[in-house]
Amino acid sequence: MAIEKTLILIKPDGISRKLSGLTIDRLDHAGFEMIGAKVVSVSDELAHKHYIELKDEPFFEPLMKFIQGGFHNNYKNKVLALVYQGENAIEEIRKTVGATNPEEADPTTIRGSFGRVATKGHYENVVHASGNAKDAARELALWFKPEELLD
Ligand code: IDP
Ligand code: MG
């Protein structure tokens, strides 16, 4: 197994519902090291590049609005971007985060504990976590400069 880096985003629902601390607590106790952190205002371009693989999905437009704080704009457009590092971090952190649909996520996971399905069907699942090594490398390059990571 390799030492990996993975991107986590605490999404606008997590920021607006004051879930950053609880989410970081879960990630820290999963045994991984935080090596990068910053608050980011998500531009249209960043949102599109981040979710490019989902561009043909029926939920793409609401997803763009969601990640840019459009459903939680009492807190403006803010996400907390984090990078965690450790052995097999990508897969292990996905286990800590839980399934995409918060109603199907195991209740011990972050999404199972704190996520909800909005009335319009959108998944307000609190966190993003890179899905695999290829996505992690692409997403890290998109969100962080190398010198912002203290590994
Ligand atoms: P992931 O976040 O678990 O990797 P992806 O399939 O990459 O899941 O989808 C990215 C995000 O798009 C999800 O976290 C969720 O916010 C949203 N999403 C995915 N599938 C659906 C869906 O079927 N309905 C509504 N929103 C969805
Ligand atoms: Mg994904």
Could you explain how this protein is built, in words?
The protein has a single domain (3-148), classed as Nucleoside diphosphate kinase-like domain (Alpha-Beta Plaits), CATH 3.30.70. The model has no long low-confidence stretch (mean pLDDT 96). The longest helix has 11 residues, at 133-143. The protein is α+β, with helices and mostly antiparallel strands. A four-stranded antiparallel beta sheet has the order 2-3-1-6, with helices on both faces. It has a two-stranded antiparallel sheet with strand order 4-5. The protein has helices at 12-16, 20-29, 44-50, 60-67, 89-97, 110-114, 133-143, and strands at residues 3-10, 33-40, 79-87, 116-117, 123-124, 127-129. It is globular and about 40 Å long. It starts with a strand and ends in an 8-residue tail after the last helix. It is built from seven helices and six strands; from the N terminus they run βααβααβααβββα. Inosine-5'-diphosphate binds next to loops.
